[in-house]
Specification:
about 180 residues, mainly alpha, 3 helices, about 80% helix, rod-shaped
Protein backbone atom coordinates (compact mmCIF):
# COMPACT_ATOMS: atom_id res chain seq x y z
CA UNK A 1 0.00 0.00 0.00
CA UNK A 2 1.23 3.45 -0.86
CA UNK A 3 1.74 5.66 2.15
CA UNK A 4 1.15 9.36 2.37
CA UNK A 5 4.92 9.89 2.46
CA UNK A 6 5.23 8.09 -0.87
CA UNK A 7 2.49 10.25 -2.38
CA UNK A 8 4.10 13.49 -1.22
CA UNK A 9 7.55 12.33 -2.29
CA UNK A 10 6.41 11.37 -5.79
CA UNK A 11 4.71 14.70 -6.33
CA UNK A 12 7.91 16.54 -5.55
CA UNK A 13 10.05 14.00 -7.33
CA UNK A 14 11.78 12.95 -4.14
CA UNK A 15 12.13 9.55 -2.53
CA UNK A 16 11.58 9.65 1.21
CA UNK A 17 13.30 6.42 2.02
CA UNK A 18 16.64 7.92 2.74
CA UNK A 19 19.92 6.31 3.56
CA UNK A 20 23.63 7.03 3.25
CA UNK A 21 23.39 7.97 -0.44
CA UNK A 22 21.66 11.23 0.53
CA UNK A 23 24.88 12.67 1.82
CA UNK A 24 26.56 11.92 -1.49
CA UNK A 25 23.73 13.42 -3.57
CA UNK A 26 23.66 16.78 -1.79
CA UNK A 27 27.16 17.89 -2.85
CA UNK A 28 26.45 16.72 -6.42
CA UNK A 29 23.32 18.87 -6.54
CA UNK A 30 25.19 21.83 -5.15
CA UNK A 31 27.89 21.44 -7.77
CA UNK A 32 25.33 21.08 -10.56
CA UNK A 33 23.55 24.22 -9.47
CA UNK A 34 26.85 26.11 -9.33
CA UNK A 35 27.78 24.79 -12.74
CA UNK A 36 24.57 26.29 -14.15
CA UNK A 37 25.75 29.62 -12.96
CA UNK A 38 23.39 30.13 -10.10
CA UNK A 39 24.86 32.07 -7.25
CA UNK A 40 22.82 30.55 -4.44
CA UNK A 41 22.72 27.11 -2.92
CA UNK A 42 19.61 25.12 -3.74
CA UNK A 43 19.06 22.16 -1.50
CA UNK A 44 15.61 20.61 -1.09
CA UNK A 45 14.96 20.12 2.60
CA UNK A 46 13.25 16.76 2.06
CA UNK A 47 16.46 15.46 0.43
CA UNK A 48 18.47 16.00 3.54
CA UNK A 49 15.78 14.79 5.91
CA UNK A 50 17.15 12.00 7.96
CA UNK A 51 15.03 9.53 9.85
CA UNK A 52 15.42 9.97 13.53
CA UNK A 53 14.69 7.45 16.20
CA UNK A 54 12.27 9.72 18.05
CA UNK A 55 8.98 10.63 16.41
CA UNK A 56 7.93 14.22 16.12
CA UNK A 57 4.49 15.80 16.09
CA UNK A 58 4.61 15.82 12.29
CA UNK A 59 5.15 12.04 12.24
CA UNK A 60 2.11 11.45 14.46
CA UNK A 61 0.06 13.87 12.36
CA UNK A 62 1.02 12.08 9.14
CA UNK A 63 0.28 8.72 10.70
CA UNK A 64 -3.13 10.02 11.78
CA UNK A 65 -3.74 11.38 8.27
CA UNK A 66 -2.96 7.95 6.82
CA UNK A 67 -5.32 6.35 9.30
CA UNK A 68 -8.04 8.91 8.47
CA UNK A 69 -7.57 8.30 4.72
CA UNK A 70 -7.90 4.53 5.22
CA UNK A 71 -10.88 5.01 7.52
CA UNK A 72 -12.54 7.35 5.03
CA UNK A 73 -11.97 4.84 2.23
CA UNK A 74 -13.39 1.99 4.33
CA UNK A 75 -16.40 4.10 5.36
CA UNK A 76 -17.01 5.09 1.75
CA UNK A 77 -16.94 1.46 0.63
CA UNK A 78 -19.17 0.43 3.53
CA UNK A 79 -21.69 3.19 2.90
CA UNK A 80 -21.80 2.55 -0.84
CA UNK A 81 -22.28 -1.17 -0.12
CA UNK A 82 -25.03 -0.36 2.38
CA UNK A 83 -26.64 1.96 -0.17
CA UNK A 84 -26.56 -0.81 -2.79
CA UNK A 85 -28.12 -3.25 -0.30
CA UNK A 86 -30.80 -0.68 0.53
CA UNK A 87 -31.56 -0.11 -3.15
CA UNK A 88 -31.73 -3.86 -3.74
CA UNK A 89 -34.08 -4.32 -0.78
CA UNK A 90 -36.25 -1.40 -1.92
CA UNK A 91 -36.44 -2.84 -5.43
CA UNK A 92 -37.30 -6.26 -3.99
CA UNK A 93 -39.98 -4.71 -1.76
CA UNK A 94 -41.51 -2.80 -4.67
CA UNK A 95 -41.53 -5.95 -6.81
CA UNK A 96 -43.16 -7.89 -3.96
CA UNK A 97 -45.81 -5.18 -3.66
CA UNK A 98 -46.49 -5.35 -7.40
CA UNK A 99 -46.77 -9.14 -7.21
CA UNK A 100 -49.13 -8.85 -4.25
CA UNK A 101 -51.25 -6.29 -6.11
CA UNK A 102 -51.44 -8.54 -9.16
CA UNK A 103 -52.31 -11.51 -6.94
CA UNK A 104 -54.98 -9.47 -5.18
CA UNK A 105 -56.43 -8.38 -8.55
CA UNK A 106 -56.54 -12.01 -9.68
CA UNK A 107 -58.20 -13.03 -6.41
CA UNK A 108 -60.78 -10.24 -6.73
CA UNK A 109 -61.45 -11.25 -10.33
CA UNK A 110 -61.78 -14.91 -9.34
CA UNK A 111 -64.04 -14.01 -6.41
CA UNK A 112 -66.19 -11.88 -8.72
CA UNK A 113 -66.50 -14.77 -11.19
CA UNK A 114 -67.41 -17.15 -8.37
CA UNK A 115 -70.07 -14.76 -7.05
CA UNK A 116 -71.47 -14.13 -10.52
CA UNK A 117 -71.69 -17.90 -11.15
CA UNK A 118 -73.52 -18.31 -7.82
CA UNK A 119 -75.89 -15.48 -8.72
CA UNK A 120 -76.52 -16.91 -12.19
CA UNK A 121 -77.37 -20.28 -10.61
CA UNK A 122 -79.85 -18.54 -8.29
CA UNK A 123 -81.38 -16.64 -11.24
CA UNK A 124 -81.57 -19.90 -13.22
CA UNK A 125 -83.36 -21.63 -10.33
CA UNK A 126 -85.76 -18.67 -10.08
CA UNK A 127 -86.66 -18.90 -13.77
CA UNK A 128 -87.07 -22.67 -13.55
CA UNK A 129 -89.44 -22.14 -10.62
CA UNK A 130 -91.32 -19.51 -12.64
CA UNK A 131 -91.51 -21.93 -15.54
CA UNK A 132 -92.93 -24.64 -13.26
CA UNK A 133 -95.51 -22.20 -11.88
CA UNK A 134 -96.50 -21.09 -15.38
CA UNK A 135 -96.77 -24.74 -16.49
CA UNK A 136 -98.87 -25.55 -13.44
CA UNK A 137 -101.13 -22.53 -14.04
CA UNK A 138 -101.41 -23.47 -17.71
CA UNK A 139 -102.28 -27.07 -16.79
CA UNK A 140 -104.81 -25.87 -14.22
CA UNK A 141 -106.41 -23.57 -16.78
CA UNK A 142 -106.29 -26.31 -19.41
CA UNK A 143 -107.93 -28.78 -17.01
CA UNK A 144 -110.54 -26.19 -16.02
CA UNK A 145 -111.43 -25.54 -19.66
CA UNK A 146 -111.42 -29.26 -20.37
CA UNK A 147 -113.66 -29.85 -17.37
CA UNK A 148 -115.98 -27.09 -18.55
CA UNK A 149 -116.06 -28.67 -21.99
CA UNK A 150 -116.79 -32.09 -20.51
CA UNK A 151 -119.39 -30.58 -18.26
CA UNK A 152 -120.98 -28.86 -21.25
CA UNK A 153 -120.90 -32.07 -23.27
CA UNK A 154 -122.36 -33.97 -20.34
CA UNK A 155 -125.08 -31.37 -19.91
CA UNK A 156 -125.82 -31.54 -23.64
CA UNK A 157 -125.80 -35.32 -23.49
CA UNK A 158 -128.06 -35.32 -20.45
CA UNK A 159 -130.36 -32.68 -21.90
CA UNK A 160 -130.58 -34.61 -25.22
CA UNK A 161 -131.37 -37.83 -23.38
CA UNK A 162 -133.79 -36.01 -21.16
CA UNK A 163 -135.53 -34.60 -24.22
CA UNK A 164 -135.45 -37.97 -25.86
CA UNK A 165 -136.79 -39.72 -22.76
CA UNK A 166 -139.50 -37.02 -22.42
CA UNK A 167 -140.46 -37.65 -26.07
CA UNK A 168 -140.46 -41.38 -25.52
CA UNK A 169 -142.56 -40.92 -22.36
CA UNK A 170 -144.98 -38.65 -24.21
CA UNK A 171 -145.29 -41.09 -27.00
CA UNK A 172 -145.89 -43.88 -24.55
CA UNK A 173 -148.48 -41.83 -22.79
CA UNK A 174 -150.18 -40.92 -26.00
CA UNK A 175 -150.36 -44.38 -27.13
Amino acid sequence: MMTLWDKIGRRKGVSLELDIHVDQEVPDKIEIDQADGSSHLFVNQTDVYQKSESKTHWDFLLKELEWMADDFQKETKKKSGDAKKLVRNCKKHINEQLVQQEKKKREVKHDLKRKSKFMSNIVGMYWKSCEKIVKHNYNVEYERKRQQLRTKKLENFVSKHLKLSVKVAEQLNTN
